[in-house]
Amino acid sequence: MIAIIDYGAGNLRSVTNTLKYLGADVTIASRPDQMEGADRIVLPGVGAFGAGIDSLREAGFEEPIKQAVADGKPLIGICLGMQYLFDESEEMGKHKGLGLLPGRVVRFPADVPKVPHIGWNQLHIESASPLLAGIDDGAYAYFVHSFIAAPADSADILASTDYGGSFASVVGRGNVFGIQCHPEKSQAVGQRILRNFMGVRSF
Fold it and tell me: What's this model's pTM, rounded to 2 decimal places?
């Protein structure tokens, strides 16, 4: 069973529908206790980092998420949910993240073509991972975001994307994964990533 965390700031419907289409048993967890019994966790997110992480904490999800990871349950953060995984963000001030991956969330470089980054762009595979099994180097995925993750450890970068320079678009360490693109909008590539997540082993 996959628990999708509902803290009032996530794009739940499209992610839920895609996972169900792929055959997943999905539950929407609007309270931490509803995560119990789930084999893996999905952390979606849209909007601004500060407001979103505050909502997540106010709903009581921070410690249960960290405990689930410590228990070996696979977790994937999607878009803003990926950015929550890091230590902090500089979006509209400084905000503390979940600290599951070392690094920061920063602005795009000043010379990027346009912010937000919206549309199809390529995933360049940086490291082999079960999350990206069957994904070709250079495959296209759909993005909508204004800030980027800067992992402290380059080994955590599973795929990168070029947009005014290279940024981390897929990250992972152990049972913690994050994707900056929207898999539910990325057609076959996004479906393959989610199907892979459904099959990654627990630790």
Answer: 0.96
